[in-house]
UniProtKB/TrEMBL annotation:
Name recorded for this polypeptide: DUF547 domain-containing protein
The DUF547 domain, residue ranges: 87-198
Pfam families: DUF547
Taxon lineage: Bacteria, Pseudomonadati, Pseudomonadota, Gammaproteobacteria, Vibrionales
Highest taxon of source: Bacteria
Record-annotated membrane-spanning stretches: none
Keywords for this protein: Signal
Residues spanning the signal sequence: 1-18
Amino acid sequence: MTRMVLLLALFLSTHVLAAPKSELWEYWNTSNESSLQSVSHQGWQRFLDNYVTAQGEHTLVSYHRVSPQDKNNLKQYVQQLATLDPKQLSRAEQYAYWVNLYNAITVDLILDNYPIKSITKLGGFFSFGPWQDDVITISGKALTLNDIEHRILRPIWNEPRTHYAVNCASLGCPNLQATAFTASNTDKLLEQAAHVFINSNKGVEITPESVTLSSIYDWFRDDFQSEGGVIEHIRRYRPQINDYQGTLHYDYDWSLNQSSD
């Protein structure tokens, strides 16, 4: 029994460290730049307005307060997005579509299983979280959360700040934005999210003796090469890191981003 537990722990630790690569799902790599269609994200915005609050450096969700009606409304919002064909949207509309969809599905998964201590408790016995589970069908294609993040968002946009947009319902994650993404506010929200995360201790903790970065910068370091690497990216928002010459450490808190209010 002890040997089985050790083997399972080894399996899960390896799984955590082996972050998914950015690998394009070509089917989704098309858009309609002549489209004037604007996707409504009001359903998601109403949920955020009612249940998301800022506490210290965290943006937390009051999962315990969500009413049955609002749970149903959230599911309806997700299903509304599922009826659309995102390939017929402009690139700007697509980005907001995928980010909001990812975040709304993640919250919905937590609500379906609440109370839990961490999203990593979801999924099958040999799973570390729900990211490889089919969670939605769009245009006849079954998608996982990993598909949305690592096969659509990351490879199509090649935007390092996407890591500040998608939220994994954990305290260590960049905060769930209190404003729904839209085609017109995306850059503003990404820039704001990057600044807030990098200037928080969970993003970049600087002391006289050490610097501890979010494990995001370790898992996805290749995504920041277009900006000269992780440190160059961080310097844009927190120049103080220039003064540190020592070893970098990494940390991540998988505790649920839940509010007690």
